[in-house]
Amino acid sequence: MTSAATPAYRRLSVEERRRQLLGVALSLFAHQAPEEVSLDVVAEAAGVSRPLVYRYFPGGKQELYEAALRSAADELELCFAEPPAGPPTERLTRVLDRYLAFVDQHDAGFSALLRGGSVAETSRTTAIVDEVRRAAADQILLHLGMPSPGPRLRMMVRTWIAAVEAASLIWLDEGKRPDAGELRGWLVDHLVALLTATAATDPETATAVAALLAQESADGPVGTLARRVLPVVADGAHLL
């Protein structure tokens, strides 16, 4: 009597094995703080030996962590890439949907990454995180039609990026409440409000806002926000 055939072991290429180990490590780092993930855990999850992990990452866990972080950063940067078509706030809505989905999938690791304080944190890991922030700001400025902004507009956009990070961390702390769609809508409104306030004293931002409004529709995020805000500020008419 013959036994059932078992699948033949397939030796992975160097690149395939590296991608596999990075994928496993990224999944582990996504749900545990870096200091809680040992090479033994990575090896067991990947179904390989510890020496094999060292073969691909001779710098040990620190090198593996930085490589996994680089992989996550590349994925996160892609969240902000959006074709320049349609109203800007609708593009931003799609960007934030992807971003919040990433946060949701990498919750614990995302928190450890942005809060810092990990024993795995180095100047290199900090530089990777800062690179994502700069890339995100550059993408937002492109959608505003201002790829080379002055200091006020750039500061405003970077302030908004920081607020998005902070809101994401609070969202995780609060058990992902409100739901992602509601949070995304609030973050879009937040950017519009910051743009409006900055435009009041900065001609360059005012130009960006005028161009944005020309592309928006009455039933889009800006029109909806305007209709909601007007009753709130109506009692302040005596201040004008």
UniProtKB/TrEMBL annotation:
Keywords on record: DNA-binding, Transcription, Transcription regulation
Binding region for DNA: 38-57
Residue ranges occupied by any HTH tetR-type domain in the UniProt entry: 15-75
Name of this chain's protein: TetR/AcrR family transcriptional regulator
Organismal lineage: Bacteria, Bacillati, Actinomycetota, Actinomycetes, Kitasatosporales
